[in-house]
Automatic annotation (TrEMBL):
HAMAP family: GPH_hydrolase_bact. It is an enzyme of class 3 (hydrolase). GO terms for molecular function: phosphoglycolate phosphatase activity. Keywords: Carbohydrate metabolism, Hydrolase, Magnesium, Metal-binding. It catalyses: 2-phosphoglycolate + H2O = glycolate + phosphate. Specifically catalyzes the dephosphorylation of 2-phosphoglycolate. Is involved in the dissimilation of the intracellular 2-phosphoglycolate formed during the DNA repair of 3'-phosphoglycolate ends, a major class of DNA lesions induced by oxidative stress. It comes from Shewanella corallii. Pfam families: HAD_2. Its EC number is 3.1.3.18. This is Phosphoglycolate phosphatase. Pathway: Organic acid metabolism; glycolate biosynthesis; glycolate from 2-phosphoglycolate: step 1/1. The active site is at 12 (nucleophile).
C-alpha cells in the first residue's frame, strides 16, 4: 500500500468503530430464552459475529440445539432476534478508544469516508447516530443494502464507483477476515485491526497491507502524525 495513493477510506462498524457485542449477546440470549433453549455466553457471541445477523443466529441456534438448524426454524427465529436487538440496540455498546479523534483528523484532511458493514441497515444508521458518527460518512452500506455482503467485493466496488476513484485508491479498515478478503477481491488496500472480532484468529494471517493494534495507528500509516499533533 502506498499511502499517497489513498483517496478514500471505508470502515467496518462492529469490532472496528464500536464494540457492539454486549448488545448482540443480550439479544441473542433473549431470543434463545424465548425459544426455551440453553443460553450462550457473551464470549461465544464474540466468536460468532461478523457475517451478518442471520449467520450469528444460525451459529447460536446450532450451538444451543447441538444440531444443524433448518432454514424454516431459522426463519421463525429471526424476527424474534431482530425485535430483541432493536430493544437492546445502543444499551451496552461502546466506542473504541480514539475513534472520534481519528475520524475528525481524516475528515479535516478531506478523505471521503464510507461505512461498510454486514449489520442490517435498519440497525446501522441508528447506532451511528447514537454515537455521533453519522456525519463522518458520505455513504453507509449495511449487509442488506446490496445483493451480497463482505467478503464479497460488491460493497467495496459500490464505494469505488460512488466515490469516483480507482480500486487502489480505496483503503478498507476492519477487524475481520471478511474485511480483508473483500478488499483483496476488490483490489483495494486494507488495514486489519487486532482488537475486534475475528473468530479468535490472528488478523495478520489474512494478509492485510498493514496491521494496527490501536485505531490511532491508522493515522501513522497514512503518514499523518504531524496532522495529529497540529489538530
Amino acid at each position: 500500500m502506498n499511502p499517497s495513493d489513498i483517496k478514500a477510506i471505508a470502515f467496518d462498524l462492529d469490532g472496528t468503530l464500536i464494540d457492539s457485542v454486549p448488545d448482540l449477546a443480550a439479544a441473542t440470549q433473549a431470543t434463545l430464552k424465548e425459544l426455551t433453549l440453553p443460553l450462550c455466553s457473551e464470549q461465544q457471541v464474540r466468536s460468532w459475529v461478523g457475517n451478518g445477523a442471520r449467520i450469528l443466529m444460525k451459529r447460536a441456534l446450532s450451538w444451543s440445539m447441538d444440531t444443524d438448524v433448518s432454514d424454516e426454524y431459522l426463519d421463525n427465529a429471526m424476527p424474534k432476534f431482530m425485535q430483541h436487538y432493536q430493544e437492546h440496540l445502543e444499551k451496552h455498546s461502546r466506542l473504541y478508544p480514539d475513534v472520534v479523534a481519528v475520524l475528525d483528523v481524516l475528515k479535516a484532511q478531506g478523505y471521503p469516508m464510507a461505512l461498510v458493514t454486514n449489520k442490517p441497515y435498519r440497525f446501522t444508521v441508528p447506532l451511528l447516530q447514537a454515537f455521533g458518527l453519522d456525519n463522518y460518512f458520505c455513504l453507509v452500506l449495511g449487509g442488506d443494502s446490496l445483493a451480497d455482503m463482505k467478503p464479497n467485493p460488491l460493497p467495496l466496488q459500490k464505494v469505488i464507483s460512488e466515490f469516483g476513484i480507482t480500486a487502489n485508491q480505496l483503503l478498507m479498515v476492519g477487524d475481520s477476515r471478511n474485511d480483508i478478503l473483500a478488499a483483496k477481491a476488490a483490489g483495494a488496500a486494507s488495514i486489519g485491526l487486532t482488537y475486534g472480532y475475528n473468530y479468535g484468529e490472528d488478523i495478520g494471517l489474512c494478509g492485510p497491507d498493514a496491521v494496527c493494534n490501536d485505531f490511532s495507528e491508522i493515522l501513522a500509516i497514512l503518514e499523518s502524525r504531524q496532522a495529529v499533533l497540529e489538530h
